[in-house]
Structures are given as C-alpha cells and as structure tokens.
Amino acid sequence: QKEVEQNSGPLSVPEGAIASLNCTYSDRGSQSFFWYRQYSGKSPELIMSIYSNGDKEDGRFTAQLNKASQYVSLLIRDSQPSDSATYLCAVRDSNYQLIWGAGTKLIIKP
Amino acid sequence: DAEITQSPRHKITETGRQVTLACHQTWNHNNMFWYRQDLGHGLRLIHYSYGVQDTNKGEVSDGYSVSRSNTEDLPLTLESAASSQTSVYFCATSGTDNSPLHFGNGTRLTVT
Asked: Taking Cα atoms as reference points, which of A90, A91, A94 lies closest to residue A103?
C-alpha cells in the first residue's frame, strides 16, 4: 500500500517565525509533489508544486524535495496568522495516482 | 476565469433516498475526480474519469456511481443514501496526468 505520511500536529509557530512542514512517501518512483492549504470549511488550495530534487521558492513559501530520502517539505517564512490552516501533502506515484497525506494542522500564534 | 462549480453547497436527505451531486467545470480538463473528506480520514477517492464515457472506481466507491456524457460534467449519484455517507464531497479536475488538481468549493451532505 503506497503511503504519504504527515505529522497531524497541531504545529504551533510564533508569528514571524519559520514554519516547517514535512511529508514522507513510500513509492520511490513518485513523479510529482504538491502542497495544498485548506482553511476550515473550505476546499484545498494548491500553493506549491515541485517535480525535481532541490528547492523551489514562491514568495514566503519554499518547497524542498529529496527523492533519495523520499521526503518533501514546505517552509513558510515570516509566518502570519492567516497561514493558520491544515496543509495537505499529495504525491503522484509511479502509476500517476495521487496519494494524499492526512494533513498537518498549523497554528500561527500572534 | 475557469472554475469548478459544485451544487448544491449543502444538502440534507433521508436514508434510502437517491441523491445526485453536480460538478461542472469550465477548465476544459479531461480528468475529473470525486473525493469525500471526513475527520480522521483525509481525502478519499470515490470515482474518477479521464474523459467522456470513461469512469473508474476509487478506493471508496461502494454506494456511489458516476457518468461522464460530456467534458464539463461529472455528476455523483448516491443510489440509496446511508448515514455513513454523511460527509463533505469535493469535485476536482486536472489538465494532464501529472498536473495538480483544482478543487470545487465542496458539497456538505447530511444523511439523516
């Protein structure tokens, strides 16, 4: 059974600090990796896609992919209260099926 | 702007009734998906379609059906609603097999 693992949290981070969210996956042949943000009562919203090893930056967000260690992380710099949400990691496996993590709840404390 | 419209946003129905949830997209995407989301289970795939007349079962397909007669729509039918199908349902689309999903706003279904 292919799996994507995330710490459920909640992860509590002071405002202005860096929030670090991690995700590990089991299928070594996975193709692409996505981070979604989901506010309570809302639908998931794509915030980052990453397809190759290394870092990808977009504003305050940085996605990091390490295929050898089978993990992908999301860093949020200068965390704001509006970043408080559940963050979902999704991995497209070697069969192009999308496998979802259960999500990490992030709380940014003012 | 392209969008995915789900209707209704909220639905209350009785056990045993047939219910259809609508999903309409203007992305012109071939790939469409239905998920349910429950506390403690995350997103679970119900059915998906890679194009007109194509439908496939996901991991939790029992009690649900879909049909794809055009590119824009993938309605989800609960043949005989059960209390265990109380959930939030999301429709999503993707342009290619390797691209991310775009989600609709969801339908909250309560079966009493």
From this structure: A90
Residue B42 pLDDT: 85
Contact list, A92 vs chain B (CB under 8 Å): 98
Handedness of CA B47, A6, A68, A1 (dihedral sign): negative
- The chain A residue lying nearest B88, using CA atoms, is A41
Kindly report the nearest CA distance between residue B31 and chain A, in angstroms. 12
Residue A96 sits at the vertex; the CA angle it makes with A91 and A98, to the nearest 5 degrees, is 40
Rounded Cα distance between A79 and A108, Å, is 7
Q: Do residues B16 and B80 make contact, with C-beta atoms less than 8 angstroms apart?
A: yes
Tens of pLDDT, residues A72-85: 999 999 999 999 99
pLDDT tens digits along A38-90: 999 999 999 999 999 999 999 999 999 999 999 999 999 999 999 999 999 99
User: Exposure of A76 by Cβ count < 10 A (0-12 exposed, 13-18 middle, 19+ buried)?
Assistant: buried
- Indicate which of A43, A47, A88 best probes the interface with B, i.e. most B CBs within 10 Å of its own CB: A43
Give yes or no for a contact between B100 and B85, defined as CB atoms under 8 angstroms apart. no
